[in-house]
């Protein structure tokens, strides 16, 4: 199995997805103190079934020296999905320490779909952290979906922070509005201002969650993309509906170790924020096209420097 590896100098991560040739990481010099405190390297690697690295330091007390995060989004679980998602989740068990789900957990936002998803997730013995996506809002039952998942033990983040060992997770759905100089501005009709305000509010929620974390490593979960790079591959006409640069601002102010997002079914697997934080698009349809058998992104964060 092909192996792709890139070193960024400190933090290390691994992946079970074949990066596209043009999406492979290149060395980056971090120049912000809040980034360099994490160490210096990111490593991306295709992980086969037998190629699993566990890192436990044996001493007076057992200490975790890495955390493997399995990530996937856009499950679009429907009433007909029973049995379809289970193999994906089962693959994460034993190969990761935590499973993160990046929104569009259900197809139309029906509570019945959330119940099917909970059943599919029953094979997972890992902690599960999730954010909702736009599809989870479609039927007007987002709160009920959150309740169903929460009762099943899934930690659903909506501007919240959650810590497992020395890794902190901050999650929001995010919103759209476009990228760079083409980002929609709050000007003109009230409805446009309201639209832009939603993106700003989501960015502020993400900032608030990231600011609360005091862990050695931090992970940001979103549904919408915070960068343009991972939406490339979609029709350019719909870029503004796939994410928003406003979501990148908190990622610069409080740089996480790694960012995961979904929503972009035909985009790019990997990108980086302006300060060099790796961003992974873990949309299931995209992962299926690159790793049909095990469509999961598994990233290993080194805690060795703790
Ligand atoms: Fe989706
Ligand atoms: Fe979506």
Question: What can you tell me about this protein's structure?
Answer:
The protein has 306 residues and is of the alpha/beta class. It has one domain (21-302): 4-Layer Sandwich (Purple Acid Phosphatase, chain A, domain 2). It has helices at residues 33-36, 86-92, 111-121, 142-151, 190-212, 248-253, 284-290; strands at residues 56-57, 63-64, 66-72, 98-102, 128-131, 154-156, 160-164, 167-171, 217-221, 258-261, 270-272, 278-281, 297-302. α4 links the parallel β5 (128-131) and β6. It is globular and about 50 Å long. It starts with 32 loop residues before the first helix and ends with a strand. The structure holds fe (ii) ion (2 copies).
Quick overview of this protein structure:
With 306 residues, the protein is α/β, with parallel strands linked by helices. It is built from seven helices and 13 strands. It has a single domain (21-302), classed as 4-Layer Sandwich (Purple Acid Phosphatase, chain A, domain 2), CATH 3.60.21.
